[in-house]
Amino acid sequence: MGRTVLAAPLAILLVASGCTAAPEPATAKETAACDGVPRMMLAGRVTDAADILTGEEEARLSDRLARYETRTKHQMVVATTPSLHSARVDNFGTCLGSRWAIGRKHHDDGIVILVAPNERQMRIATGTGMEKILTDDKALAVIREMTPQFEQGDYAGGLATGIDAIAAQTGDPE
């Protein structure tokens, strides 16, 4: 009974905090495509495991992602990784989105922007509910917009460009 009393306030805090510090959900079954994709803990709307962003840049991107979610109800996160660990970049991004349960449960409308700077690869992974709105061709066009800034080492600028381009195509032309 004591656990039930503590569980309710904890659940309220987790829901109220959005992505922040939510534990990684347990997945019943993962596809073979997730083999080799390491476990990463969700650190918020921006999970910078590659340490390519300053705290201020993370906060600015996180604020933009929060506004996007408030306006559209779609959830978008940014993840960076120091290594793909020999996994394919598309599998890596999709696995993170599934493991972290990005997007609304019955809408599957999550978006993960994944950057692996050491391998010079990136991917925009979408839930099936977003695939008609943000097609592979549109996602590739967004990546092409981001690339010049990444090539100059401006990861925060490239990510901001990508977030704004995706937002404009999915209902938030801020």
TrEMBL record:
Domain of life: Bacteria
Residue stretches making up the TPM domain: 46-168
UniProt keyword annotations, A-Z: Signal
UniProt xrefs under InterPro entries: TPM_dom
Keyword Disulfide bond: no
Stretch forming the signal peptide: 1-21
Any Pfam family matching the protein: TPM_phosphatase
Protein name: TPM domain-containing protein
Species whose genome carries this gene: uncultured Sphingopyxis sp
Native organism taxonomy: Bacteria, Pseudomonadati, Pseudomonadota, Alphaproteobacteria, Sphingomonadales
